[in-house]
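Form 7-S
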Amino acid sequence: MDRQKQAVDFSGTFTSPGGVPRPRIGLRVDLQTAAPGLMTLESLPDHRLKVHAGPPVRGACHLHRFVYTHGDVDLIPAGASDSWEHEDASAAVVVRLSPSLLRRAAEDMGLDPDRAGLEPRHQFRDPQIEHIAWALEADRRAGHPGGLLYAESLGLALSVHLLGHYPAPLGHGRGLSKPQLRRVTEYIEDHLDQNLSLARLAVVAGVSASHLKTLFKRSTGLPVHEYVVQRRVERARTLLQRGGLSVGEVALEAGFSHQSHLARCMRRVLGVTPTEVVRGSR
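Output:
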């Protein structure tokens, strides 16, 4: 299958005019085009909105036939995946929102950020989502002249709208307590370079391993393994930007089994390679 992407990434960190590293806002905008055939969306640590941007596309998903038209929206929460067959070439604007951006929006709305999640939805219409997606896509095509402030305002507006209209159901119960979540996440940070196990993390939290899987996802919106991969990628990026270590050494320091494992995970999470990170920090 032939697929192309053109992306503008506002995740990670950037350097301010004063030379001070500052966090980006956790937003990524992709224009994805694909030939007819099997389409797959892998599990990612970010929430995704896919807005159909081309002519009508016929297809099928689990024996259900569909026709996507311009503006149809799919909402894929963090950690979720999807696949389907389509009979026509397709184009879509895909907006990725990090859990941290959703937490920030929840705080602005006076909601519990630990329970900020989204409900999966397929092939629906929402003029507000469309408006923001087209604005982000227009900014991408123009070389993002609006800069970080413009993207940040749109990303927050989109996150607020999603939390207000498509929140994850509250009936799933509570997640880890704040002290439990702090202990687990601090343990992960302190042992990223080691072979972390679900059993050990469960001991840290004081719950069973099966219970930890459920409670951790309720608290963070991510499966444990996805959270660990995301933190290892961030650790690797920091080490690469700092310099002084080879890519292989950085991979081991961040807890990856080898250099190609780091490259594969960094490409999936951040959309860039270790070499591109090193080049961008020079």
